[in-house]
Please model this.
Amino acid sequence: MEKELKLFSKTHEWVELLDGGRALVGLSSYAVEQLGSIVFVNLPMKGDTVQAEQSFGDVESVKAVSEMISPLTGTVVKVNEAVFDEPGLLNEDPYNTWLLEIDDIKNQEELLTYSQYQSLIGKS
Amino acid sequence: MEKKTPLYQWHVEHQGLMVPYAGYLLPVQYQDIIIEHMQVRTKAGLFDISHMGRIDILGNEAEEYVNYLCTNQIQGMKDGQIKYGLLCNDEGGVLDDVLVYRKSKQHFYMVVNASNREKIVKHCIKQNSYGVSITDVSSETAALALQGPNAKIILNSVIQEDEIPLKYYTFLEHIKIDGITCDISKTGYTGEEGFEIICAKDQIEHLWKLLLMKGEAYGLIVCGLGARDTLRLEAAMPLYGHELSENITPLEAGLTKYIAFEKKDFIGKTALLKQKIIKTRVGIKVLERGIVRENCTLMYEDREVGHTTSGTFLPYIKGAYAMAYVELKHSLIGSKLIVNVRNRQLQCEVCSLPFYKKGD
Model:
Protein backbone atom coordinates (compact mmCIF):
# COMPACT_ATOMS: atom_id res chain seq x y z
CA MET A 1 0.00 0.00 0.00
CA GLU A 2 1.78 3.06 -1.16
CA LYS A 3 1.54 6.12 0.98
CA GLU A 4 1.25 8.33 -2.10
CA LEU A 5 -2.13 6.72 -2.83
CA LYS A 6 -3.52 7.48 0.59
CA LEU A 7 -5.45 10.54 1.78
CA PHE A 8 -4.60 12.30 5.01
CA SER A 9 -6.43 14.24 7.71
CA LYS A 10 -4.96 17.29 9.38
CA THR A 11 -4.95 15.27 12.60
CA HIS A 12 -2.51 12.73 11.08
CA GLU A 13 -4.75 9.78 10.23
CA TRP A 14 -4.59 8.21 6.78
CA VAL A 15 -7.46 6.85 4.68
CA GLU A 16 -7.17 4.32 1.90
CA LEU A 17 -10.25 3.94 -0.27
CA LEU A 18 -11.03 0.33 -1.16
CA ASP A 19 -13.22 -1.14 -3.85
CA GLY A 20 -16.87 -1.34 -2.89
CA GLY A 21 -16.94 1.97 -1.05
CA ARG A 22 -15.06 0.80 2.01
CA ALA A 23 -11.98 2.44 3.50
CA LEU A 24 -9.05 1.61 5.77
CA VAL A 25 -7.91 4.06 8.44
CA GLY A 26 -4.44 4.25 10.01
CA LEU A 27 -1.90 6.67 11.48
CA SER A 28 0.70 8.64 9.52
CA SER A 29 4.40 8.02 10.05
CA TYR A 30 4.69 11.59 11.35
CA ALA A 31 2.07 10.80 14.04
CA VAL A 32 3.85 7.68 15.24
CA GLU A 33 7.25 9.42 15.21
CA GLN A 34 5.84 12.14 17.45
CA LEU A 35 4.44 9.57 19.87
CA GLY A 36 7.52 7.36 20.12
CA SER A 37 7.20 3.65 20.84
CA ILE A 38 3.51 2.82 20.93
CA VAL A 39 2.54 0.47 23.75
CA PHE A 40 -1.26 0.42 23.63
CA VAL A 41 -4.10 1.12 21.22
CA ASN A 42 -7.75 1.43 22.22
CA LEU A 43 -10.12 0.96 19.27
CA PRO A 44 -13.89 0.74 18.77
CA MET A 45 -15.46 -2.67 18.16
CA LYS A 46 -16.85 -4.20 15.01
CA GLY A 47 -20.32 -2.78 14.47
CA ASP A 48 -19.62 0.54 16.20
CA THR A 49 -20.08 3.75 14.27
CA VAL A 50 -17.44 6.41 13.99
CA GLN A 51 -18.04 10.10 13.33
CA ALA A 52 -15.91 12.36 11.18
CA GLU A 53 -13.85 14.79 13.30
CA GLN A 54 -14.72 12.85 16.48
CA SER A 55 -12.42 10.69 18.57
CA PHE A 56 -12.51 6.99 17.70
CA GLY A 57 -9.92 5.73 20.17
CA ASP A 58 -6.60 6.37 21.89
CA VAL A 59 -3.07 5.52 21.10
CA GLU A 60 -0.54 5.48 23.92
CA SER A 61 3.21 5.63 24.08
CA VAL A 62 5.27 5.44 27.25
CA LYS A 63 5.12 9.18 27.69
CA ALA A 64 1.67 10.19 26.48
CA VAL A 65 -1.88 9.39 25.42
CA SER A 66 -3.23 10.77 22.20
CA GLU A 67 -6.75 10.67 20.80
CA MET A 68 -7.26 9.48 17.26
CA ILE A 69 -9.77 11.47 15.23
CA SER A 70 -11.91 9.75 12.65
CA PRO A 71 -11.46 11.15 9.14
CA LEU A 72 -14.88 9.87 8.11
CA THR A 73 -18.34 8.85 9.30
CA GLY A 74 -19.34 5.21 8.90
CA THR A 75 -19.58 1.76 10.45
CA VAL A 76 -16.63 -0.30 11.65
CA VAL A 77 -16.65 -3.63 9.80
CA LYS A 78 -13.16 -4.86 10.73
CA VAL A 79 -10.65 -4.09 13.47
CA ASN A 80 -6.98 -4.97 13.04
CA GLU A 81 -6.53 -7.12 16.14
CA ALA A 82 -2.83 -7.62 15.43
CA VAL A 83 -2.13 -4.15 16.86
CA PHE A 84 -3.58 -5.15 20.24
CA ASP A 85 -0.86 -7.76 20.65
CA GLU A 86 1.82 -5.83 18.85
CA PRO A 87 1.20 -2.07 19.03
CA GLY A 88 4.81 -1.57 17.85
CA LEU A 89 3.68 -2.53 14.32
CA LEU A 90 2.42 1.06 14.08
CA ASN A 91 5.97 2.34 14.58
CA GLU A 92 7.58 -0.21 12.31
CA ASP A 93 5.28 0.08 9.34
CA PRO A 94 2.58 2.72 9.79
CA TYR A 95 1.37 2.66 6.18
CA ASN A 96 0.80 -1.10 6.16
CA THR A 97 -0.71 -1.20 9.64
CA TRP A 98 -4.35 -0.24 9.30
CA LEU A 99 -6.53 0.12 12.40
CA LEU A 100 -10.13 0.04 11.17
CA GLU A 101 -12.03 -0.88 8.04
CA ILE A 102 -15.05 1.36 7.59
CA ASP A 103 -18.18 0.78 5.52
CA ASP A 104 -21.39 2.77 4.92
CA ILE A 105 -19.32 5.90 4.60
CA LYS A 106 -21.64 8.87 4.91
CA ASN A 107 -19.30 11.80 4.86
CA GLN A 108 -15.71 12.58 5.32
CA GLU A 109 -13.79 15.62 6.37
CA GLU A 110 -11.74 17.41 3.78
CA LEU A 111 -8.76 15.15 3.19
CA LEU A 112 -5.31 16.01 1.88
CA THR A 113 -3.21 14.26 -0.72
CA TYR A 114 0.17 12.90 0.36
CA SER A 115 2.03 15.91 -1.00
CA GLN A 116 -0.42 18.36 0.59
CA TYR A 117 0.01 16.50 3.87
CA GLN A 118 3.80 16.62 3.57
CA SER A 119 3.65 20.39 3.26
CA LEU A 120 1.28 20.60 6.25
CA ILE A 121 3.88 18.89 8.45
CA GLY A 122 6.65 20.99 6.93
CA LYS A 123 8.37 18.18 5.07
CA SER A 124 8.14 19.31 1.48
CA MET B 1 11.40 31.60 31.49
CA GLU B 2 13.05 28.24 32.06
CA LYS B 3 16.67 27.94 33.08
CA LYS B 4 19.19 25.98 31.10
CA THR B 5 21.76 23.54 32.41
CA PRO B 6 25.38 23.91 31.20
CA LEU B 7 24.68 21.01 28.81
CA TYR B 8 21.67 22.68 27.15
CA GLN B 9 23.44 23.46 23.88
CA TRP B 10 24.85 19.94 23.70
CA HIS B 11 21.37 18.43 24.18
CA VAL B 12 19.89 20.59 21.42
CA GLU B 13 22.72 19.73 19.03
CA HIS B 14 22.21 16.02 19.71
CA GLN B 15 18.47 15.76 18.98
CA GLY B 16 17.40 16.11 22.60
CA LEU B 17 13.66 16.80 22.66
CA MET B 18 13.66 19.67 25.13
CA VAL B 19 10.78 20.11 27.58
CA PRO B 20 10.27 22.32 30.63
CA TYR B 21 10.75 20.41 33.89
CA ALA B 22 11.05 21.87 37.38
CA GLY B 23 11.99 25.26 35.97
CA TYR B 24 14.61 23.89 33.56
CA LEU B 25 14.66 22.98 29.90
CA LEU B 26 15.80 19.36 29.79
CA PRO B 27 15.73 16.57 27.21
CA VAL B 28 12.78 14.19 27.70
CA GLN B 29 14.39 11.84 25.18
CA TYR B 30 17.03 11.74 22.45
CA GLN B 31 15.91 8.75 20.40
CA ASP B 32 13.22 6.83 22.23
CA ILE B 33 12.26 6.28 25.87
CA ILE B 34 12.08 2.49 25.57
CA ILE B 35 15.47 2.20 23.84
CA GLU B 36 17.07 4.48 26.46
CA HIS B 37 15.40 2.59 29.32
CA MET B 38 16.53 -0.82 28.04
CA GLN B 39 20.07 0.39 27.49
CA VAL B 40 20.35 1.42 31.16
CA ARG B 41 19.08 -2.00 32.27
CA THR B 42 21.45 -3.90 29.99
CA LYS B 43 24.47 -1.63 29.27
CA ALA B 44 24.73 1.99 30.42
CA GLY B 45 23.08 5.39 30.18
CA LEU B 46 24.23 8.96 30.83
CA PHE B 47 21.84 11.55 32.28
CA ASP B 48 22.18 15.30 32.83
CA ILE B 49 21.03 15.86 36.44
CA SER B 50 22.42 19.38 36.80
CA HIS B 51 18.91 20.63 37.60
CA MET B 52 18.97 18.90 41.01
CA GLY B 53 19.49 21.25 43.96
CA ARG B 54 22.79 21.06 45.84
CA ILE B 55 23.15 22.64 49.26
CA ASP B 56 26.35 22.89 51.29
CA ILE B 57 26.10 22.93 55.09
CA LEU B 58 29.14 23.90 57.14
CA GLY B 59 29.58 24.56 60.86
CA ASN B 60 30.59 23.12 64.23
CA GLU B 61 27.05 21.87 64.83
CA ALA B 62 26.37 20.75 61.26
CA GLU B 63 25.69 17.15 62.32
CA GLU B 64 23.19 18.17 65.03
CA TYR B 65 21.51 20.58 62.61
CA VAL B 66 21.07 18.06 59.78
CA ASN B 67 19.94 15.47 62.31
CA TYR B 68 17.17 17.83 63.46
CA LEU B 69 16.18 18.68 59.87
CA CYS B 70 16.06 15.15 58.51
CA THR B 71 14.01 12.09 59.58
CA ASN B 72 16.87 9.64 59.21
CA GLN B 73 19.71 9.01 61.72
CA ILE B 74 22.50 11.38 60.80
CA GLN B 75 24.48 11.10 64.00
CA GLY B 76 27.22 8.54 63.66
CA MET B 77 27.39 8.62 59.87
CA LYS B 78 30.92 8.15 58.58
CA ASP B 79 32.84 10.59 56.38
CA GLY B 80 32.08 9.62 52.79
CA GLN B 81 28.73 8.06 53.68
CA ILE B 82 25.38 9.01 52.12
CA LYS B 83 21.89 8.54 53.55
CA TYR B 84 18.46 8.91 52.01
CA GLY B 85 16.05 10.83 54.20
CA LEU B 86 12.96 12.99 54.32
CA LEU B 87 12.57 16.60 55.34
CA CYS B 88 9.18 17.00 56.99
CA ASN B 89 7.08 19.91 58.17
CA ASP B 90 5.71 20.04 61.73
CA GLU B 91 2.67 18.04 60.61
CA GLY B 92 4.87 15.23 59.34
CA GLY B 93 4.13 16.03 55.68
CA VAL B 94 7.07 15.58 53.32
CA LEU B 95 8.75 18.83 52.21
CA ASP B 96 11.28 16.89 50.15
CA ASP B 97 13.20 13.64 49.89
CA VAL B 98 16.94 14.19 49.89
CA LEU B 99 20.35 12.60 49.89
CA VAL B 100 22.58 13.65 52.78
CA TYR B 101 26.34 13.41 52.16
CA ARG B 102 28.69 13.58 55.13
CA LYS B 103 32.02 15.15 54.15
CA SER B 104 32.99 15.54 57.82
CA LYS B 105 31.22 16.01 61.14
CA GLN B 106 31.22 19.74 60.41
CA HIS B 107 30.49 19.53 56.70
CA PHE B 108 27.39 18.05 55.08
CA TYR B 109 26.00 18.29 51.59
CA MET B 110 22.39 17.78 50.57
CA VAL B 111 21.00 16.94 47.14
CA VAL B 112 17.37 18.04 46.86
CA ASN B 113 14.72 17.97 44.14
CA ALA B 114 14.91 20.78 41.60
CA SER B 115 11.23 21.59 42.05
CA ASN B 116 11.74 22.06 45.80
CA ARG B 117 15.10 23.78 45.85
CA GLU B 118 13.99 27.29 46.73
CA LYS B 119 11.50 26.03 49.32
CA ILE B 120 14.13 23.83 50.95
CA VAL B 121 16.79 26.54 51.03
CA LYS B 122 14.28 28.81 52.81
CA HIS B 123 13.32 25.99 55.18
CA CYS B 124 16.99 25.27 55.95
CA ILE B 125 17.67 28.92 56.74
CA LYS B 126 14.53 29.23 58.88
CA GLN B 127 15.44 26.15 60.93
CA ASN B 128 19.04 27.20 61.44
CA SER B 129 19.43 27.80 65.14
CA TYR B 130 22.72 25.89 65.06
CA GLY B 131 24.89 28.64 63.59
CA VAL B 132 25.78 26.70 60.45
CA SER B 133 26.39 28.32 57.10
CA ILE B 134 24.02 27.22 54.36
CA THR B 135 25.05 27.74 50.73
CA ASP B 136 23.01 26.87 47.68
CA VAL B 137 25.74 25.76 45.27
CA SER B 138 23.34 24.46 42.60
CA SER B 139 24.07 27.10 39.99
CA GLU B 140 27.85 26.98 40.25
CA THR B 141 27.97 23.18 40.03
CA ALA B 142 26.60 20.61 37.61
CA ALA B 143 25.97 16.89 37.81
CA LEU B 144 25.54 13.80 35.70
CA ALA B 145 24.43 10.25 36.37
CA LEU B 146 26.20 7.28 34.81
CA GLN B 147 23.91 4.29 35.32
CA GLY B 148 23.75 0.66 34.32
CA PRO B 149 25.67 -2.61 34.63
CA ASN B 150 28.57 -1.19 32.59
CA ALA B 151 28.80 2.07 34.58
CA LYS B 152 31.71 0.91 36.70
CA ILE B 153 33.85 -0.36 33.86
CA ILE B 154 33.27 2.89 31.98
CA LEU B 155 34.31 4.93 35.00
CA ASN B 156 37.31 2.67 35.39
CA SER B 157 38.42 3.67 31.90
CA VAL B 158 38.92 7.28 33.08
CA ILE B 159 40.06 6.78 36.71
CA GLN B 160 41.74 4.13 38.83
CA GLU B 161 39.75 1.46 40.63
CA ASP B 162 40.56 2.96 44.06
CA GLU B 163 39.12 6.29 42.91
CA ILE B 164 35.69 4.70 42.40
CA PRO B 165 33.39 4.43 45.44
CA LEU B 166 33.03 0.75 46.26
CA LYS B 167 29.89 0.59 48.34
CA TYR B 168 26.36 1.70 47.52
CA TYR B 169 25.59 5.05 49.20
CA THR B 170 29.19 6.15 49.64
CA PHE B 171 31.15 8.87 47.83
CA LEU B 172 34.70 10.04 47.19
CA GLU B 173 35.67 13.71 47.06
CA HIS B 174 38.17 15.59 44.89
CA ILE B 175 38.71 12.81 42.36
CA LYS B 176 40.44 14.10 39.21
CA ILE B 177 38.94 12.92 35.94
CA ASP B 178 41.11 14.24 33.10
CA GLY B 179 42.02 17.19 35.34
CA ILE B 180 38.43 17.90 36.42
CA THR B 181 37.81 17.80 40.17
CA CYS B 182 34.77 15.64 40.88
CA ASP B 183 32.78 14.25 43.77
CA ILE B 184 31.69 10.74 42.80
CA SER B 185 28.91 8.91 44.61
CA LYS B 186 27.64 5.39 44.13
CA THR B 187 23.99 6.41 43.93
CA GLY B 188 21.26 6.70 41.33
CA TYR B 189 17.61 6.84 40.48
CA THR B 190 17.30 3.88 38.15
CA GLY B 191 17.51 0.70 40.23
CA GLU B 192 20.80 -0.19 38.51
CA GLU B 193 24.34 0.05 39.73
CA GLY B 194 25.62 3.49 38.91
CA PHE B 195 27.31 6.70 39.87
CA GLU B 196 26.47 10.36 40.17
CA ILE B 197 29.24 12.85 39.55
CA ILE B 198 29.27 16.50 40.61
CA CYS B 199 31.77 19.03 39.24
CA ALA B 200 32.07 22.75 38.47
CA LYS B 201 29.49 23.87 35.89
CA ASP B 202 32.02 25.00 33.29
CA GLN B 203 33.67 21.56 33.26
CA ILE B 204 30.67 19.27 32.94
CA GLU B 205 30.57 19.36 29.15
CA HIS B 206 34.13 18.10 28.91
CA LEU B 207 33.39 15.34 31.42
CA TRP B 208 30.16 14.44 29.59
CA LYS B 209 31.91 14.13 26.22
CA LEU B 210 34.80 12.18 27.70
CA LEU B 211 32.48 9.62 29.32
CA LEU B 212 30.47 9.26 26.12
CA MET B 213 33.63 8.68 24.11
CA LYS B 214 35.06 6.14 26.56
CA GLY B 215 31.68 4.55 27.13
CA GLU B 216 30.83 3.97 23.50
CA ALA B 217 32.58 0.60 23.49
CA TYR B 218 30.42 -0.43 26.45
CA GLY B 219 27.12 0.62 24.91
CA LEU B 220 26.80 3.95 26.73
CA ILE B 221 24.06 6.21 25.33
CA VAL B 222 22.55 9.49 26.49
CA CYS B 223 19.17 9.27 28.18
CA GLY B 224 16.46 11.81 28.89
CA LEU B 225 13.94 12.50 31.62
CA GLY B 226 11.46 10.06 30.09
CA ALA B 227 13.68 7.05 30.70
CA ARG B 228 14.71 8.48 34.08
CA ASP B 229 11.04 8.43 35.06
CA THR B 230 10.26 4.92 33.76
CA LEU B 231 13.45 3.53 35.33
CA ARG B 232 12.70 4.98 38.76
CA LEU B 233 9.09 3.83 38.48
CA GLU B 234 10.14 0.26 37.62
CA ALA B 235 12.42 0.38 40.68
CA ALA B 236 9.45 1.85 42.67
CA MET B 237 11.40 4.89 43.81
CA PRO B 238 9.08 7.71 44.88
CA LEU B 239 9.02 10.96 42.92
CA TYR B 240 8.22 14.17 44.74
CA GLY B 241 4.95 15.67 43.50
CA HIS B 242 3.67 12.18 42.74
CA GLU B 243 4.27 9.68 45.57
CA LEU B 244 5.41 12.38 48.00
CA SER B 245 3.97 15.76 48.95
CA GLU B 246 3.31 17.95 51.96
CA ASN B 247 0.02 16.07 52.39
CA ILE B 248 1.67 12.66 52.57
CA THR B 249 3.79 11.45 55.47
CA PRO B 250 6.77 9.07 55.20
CA LEU B 251 4.72 6.50 57.13
CA GLU B 252 2.03 6.48 54.46
CA ALA B 253 4.68 6.38 51.74
CA GLY B 254 6.13 3.18 53.18
CA LEU B 255 9.39 4.94 54.07
CA THR B 256 9.32 4.13 57.79
CA LYS B 257 12.81 2.66 57.69
CA TYR B 258 14.12 6.16 56.93
CA ILE B 259 12.60 7.57 60.13
CA ALA B 260 14.77 7.32 63.23
CA PHE B 261 12.14 7.61 65.98
CA GLU B 262 14.86 6.91 68.54
CA LYS B 263 16.29 10.39 67.89
CA LYS B 264 15.56 12.91 70.64
CA ASP B 265 13.95 15.32 68.24
CA PHE B 266 13.51 16.07 64.56
CA ILE B 267 11.02 18.19 62.66
CA GLY B 268 7.74 16.31 62.35
CA LYS B 269 8.51 13.70 65.03
CA THR B 270 5.59 14.55 67.33
CA ALA B 271 3.07 14.44 64.48
CA LEU B 272 4.49 11.24 63.01
CA LEU B 273 4.34 9.47 66.37
CA LYS B 274 0.66 10.34 66.65
CA GLN B 275 -0.37 9.62 63.09
CA LYS B 276 -3.00 6.96 62.45
CA ILE B 277 -2.35 5.49 59.04
CA ILE B 278 -5.40 4.99 56.84
CA LYS B 279 -3.80 4.82 53.40
CA THR B 280 -0.51 3.47 52.12
CA ARG B 281 1.62 3.31 48.99
CA VAL B 282 1.25 0.17 46.91
CA GLY B 283 2.13 -1.24 43.51
CA ILE B 284 -0.67 -1.82 41.02
CA LYS B 285 -0.52 -4.36 38.20
CA VAL B 286 -3.03 -3.84 35.41
CA LEU B 287 -4.68 -7.15 34.54
CA GLU B 288 -6.35 -6.07 31.29
CA ARG B 289 -5.14 -4.28 28.20
CA GLY B 290 -4.60 -0.61 28.92
CA ILE B 291 -2.21 1.89 30.40
CA VAL B 292 -2.85 3.47 33.80
CA ARG B 293 -1.26 6.83 34.48
CA GLU B 294 -1.36 9.19 37.46
CA ASN B 295 -4.60 10.45 39.05
CA CYS B 296 -6.76 7.48 38.12
CA THR B 297 -9.24 6.51 40.83
CA LEU B 298 -9.22 3.00 42.27
CA MET B 299 -12.57 1.45 43.15
CA TYR B 300 -13.76 -1.46 45.24
CA GLU B 301 -17.43 -2.36 44.82
CA ASP B 302 -18.30 1.11 43.44
CA ARG B 303 -16.54 2.91 46.28
CA GLU B 304 -13.40 4.97 45.74
CA VAL B 305 -10.59 3.45 47.83
CA GLY B 306 -7.52 5.12 46.34
CA HIS B 307 -5.81 6.79 43.41
CA THR B 308 -2.70 6.29 41.31
CA THR B 309 0.27 8.64 41.60
CA SER B 310 2.49 7.44 38.69
CA GLY B 311 1.99 4.83 36.03
CA THR B 312 2.78 3.81 32.50
CA PHE B 313 3.98 0.85 30.45
CA LEU B 314 7.19 -0.39 32.09
CA PRO B 315 9.63 -1.32 29.34
CA TYR B 316 11.87 -3.91 31.01
CA ILE B 317 9.22 -5.95 32.80
CA LYS B 318 6.87 -5.29 29.88
CA GLY B 319 3.55 -4.45 31.38
CA ALA B 320 1.28 -1.69 32.61
CA TYR B 321 1.95 -0.83 36.24
CA ALA B 322 1.31 2.07 38.59
CA MET B 323 2.04 3.23 42.09
CA ALA B 324 -0.96 4.27 44.14
CA TYR B 325 -2.26 5.19 47.56
CA VAL B 326 -5.05 2.91 48.77
CA GLU B 327 -6.92 2.36 52.01
CA LEU B 328 -5.08 -0.05 54.29
CA LYS B 329 -7.64 -2.82 54.06
CA HIS B 330 -7.23 -2.94 50.28
CA SER B 331 -3.44 -2.72 50.35
CA LEU B 332 -2.62 -6.41 50.72
CA ILE B 333 -0.80 -8.02 47.81
CA GLY B 334 -3.34 -9.66 45.53
CA SER B 335 -6.23 -7.33 46.45
CA LYS B 336 -8.42 -6.95 43.37
CA LEU B 337 -9.52 -3.42 42.46
CA ILE B 338 -10.99 -1.56 39.50
CA VAL B 339 -9.15 1.40 38.03
CA ASN B 340 -10.91 4.15 36.08
CA VAL B 341 -9.00 5.16 32.97
CA ARG B 342 -10.91 7.94 31.24
CA ASN B 343 -14.04 6.16 29.99
CA ARG B 344 -12.88 2.61 30.77
CA GLN B 345 -12.80 0.46 33.88
CA LEU B 346 -9.92 -2.02 34.11
CA GLN B 347 -9.27 -4.87 36.50
CA CYS B 348 -6.08 -4.52 38.48
CA GLU B 349 -4.47 -5.93 41.59
CA VAL B 350 -2.12 -4.81 44.31
CA CYS B 351 1.36 -6.22 43.73
CA SER B 352 4.66 -6.09 45.59
CA LEU B 353 7.18 -3.25 45.21
CA PRO B 354 9.63 -2.80 43.59
CA PHE B 355 8.34 -3.99 40.24
CA TYR B 356 11.94 -4.57 39.18
CA LYS B 357 14.92 -5.48 41.31
CA LYS B 358 18.45 -5.73 39.92
CA GLY B 359 19.38 -9.35 39.34
CA ASP B 360 15.80 -10.48 38.63
Observations:
- Residues 54-136 of chain B form a domain with the Alpha-Beta Plaits fold (CATH 3.30.70.1400).
- The interface with chain A takes residues 28-29, 32-35, 37, 226, 230, 289-291, 293, 312-313, 315, 320, 342, 344 of chain B (CB under 8 Å).
- Helices of chain B lie at 8-13, 33-42, 62-69, 117-126, 151-156, 204-215, 225-234, 269-274.
